[in-house]
Structures are given as C-alpha cells and as structure tokens.
UniProtKB/TrEMBL annotation:
It comes from Streptomyces mangrovisoli. Its EC number is 3.2.2.31. Belongs to the Nth/MutY family. This is Adenine DNA glycosylase. The keyword Iron applies.
Amino acid sequence: MTAPTKPPHHSSSAAHDTDPGDALHAPVIDWFAENARDLPWRRPEAGPWGVMVSEFMLQQTPVSRVLPVYEQWLARWPRPADLAAEAPGEAVRAWGRLGYPRRALRLHGAAAAITERHGGDVPTDHAHLLALPGIGEYTAAAVASFAYGQRHPVLDTNVRRVFARAVTGVQYPPNATTAAERKLARALLPDDEHTASRWAAASMELGALICTAKNEGCHRCPIAALCAWRLAGKPEHDGPPRRGQTYAGTDRQVRGKLLAVLREAHVPVPQSALDRVWHEPVQRARALDGLVSDGLVEPLPEGLYRLPLS
C-alpha cells in the first residue's frame, strides 16, 4: 500500500464526462491523504520487497496480527536473497500463527525466483511479477501499484465492497471476484499512473476503515452523498449466503496445532508428540497428511517429522 507522503495529483482526464470514476477519485484520494494509517509497508524505506511481504501476509489476516511478524521478518530477511538462502521450513517457522502457512512457502518460492531471475530485485514489470511462483492476479497488481506507482486495478475484499456499495448499489460483492467486477475496476481506474496508484490504495483504505463489512461509517465517508447503496436505502444482501470463517474443531485448527509443535522444535519430532495435540485420531491423521502433501511438513524415517529443508 502506498504511503500518503505526497499531496494527491489528479489527472487532467478527471474532468472528462465519460469517466465513471469522475466524482469518486478526488474525494477518496483527498480523504486518504488525511486519514491513511501509518503502516511500515507504506513508508519509503519498506521498498518493493517490504510491499510484497506485506501483501502476502495481509491476505485474510488483519493488520494487527501482521505487524509484529512483518517487522521480525524484514529484520531477519531484508532482501529476497536473504530469505532464499534459508530453508523453506524457516519461513514456515517465522510465519508463526498468521494462518494459511502455505503463503510462507509461496513467499519463499517467490524470493528464490527473484534471486535467480532478477538479480535479487523485485521486478517492476507486471508480467514478470505475475510469472513469479505464488503470485496471483491480485498480488502482482498490488505490488506493481503500491511499490512502483503503476496503473493497475487492485481488487481485494475491501475495494470490492466499496465498489459494490458505491457504484453497483448492493451491500456485499459476490463471494468470488467476477468478470463484471474486473470490468468495473478497470472503468473506474484513473488514466494517470500516479492518480491510479493513489486511487488503488485510497479505495482499499476506505473499505478497511469506513466502508467495513459490519459497521459502515457512512457519516464519515467522503462519498456517502454519491453511494448508490446508501441512496437506495441500504437494501439487505439478497445474494448467496456469505461464507463464514469457522475455525474451532476444523482441520485448519488441527493443522495449526501440529505446525505449532514443529515450529517450536529445532530437531525432528516423533509421532507421539504430534498425537498429543489433538484427541481425534482420524482427523489428526488427515490434517498431518494434508500438511505433508502441501509441503509444509517433511516425514522422516522412524516416524519423525520436521519442517521442510528444501
């Protein structure tokens, strides 16, 4: 996410009547300049690698949980080559309890590819970013926009919710990103690169702080007077049921407990130590098999397990 260190500059095309984002750009970017959080990955010293690390960590994880892990990560691995030089299991260990630990392996894989293909520098080209292992459509656009100030639509959950309400007039976006949402994001993107990168960061922050999923703050929103959903009387969501985030008793919880044992151990762990963390043997075995299949755990002879070394 970009740092709110410069005053917003608006493209000359912002006055063009056919741009559907005309009335939205300036108030949202100006609001961002005054209200954006001071986050470490928005500071100039973070650099492109710091931006990339933050984007991996922030997927499905709140900022409050990411901050301490992010700081420790960058202190230990300030450049991609530093991470690439270590075993992937060390990335899993340092990931701690952020959840979805396959992201740690993907970030390690991206760091290795950056070191091998790009001389250790996060590539500036969007296509090169997208070609890195573990980098999808969203992350490539986010790094290109937030780290390099390029013009790309950046569609995370917060942005999608802002666009759904302000433009489409519905309470929530679909459960998965649709072609219609991508088309809308492209239509709303300012023509000027600097303005576009500011818009990407500003619309994301608006969704994170004001236009939230549960407690929208319309009285503080810079585009409340233009919001199609508010003007329609805030109709209730009538689409497919929204997916919950259940955790207790799931395989995800068991996987987390098993990984916690392995993260805390610096020598191979016997099966008996893993058996103690969960009472139900079938679910425990399924979770462990899943961790092995995902490359997060390496089985050894004699019933021992460890984090992966390669």
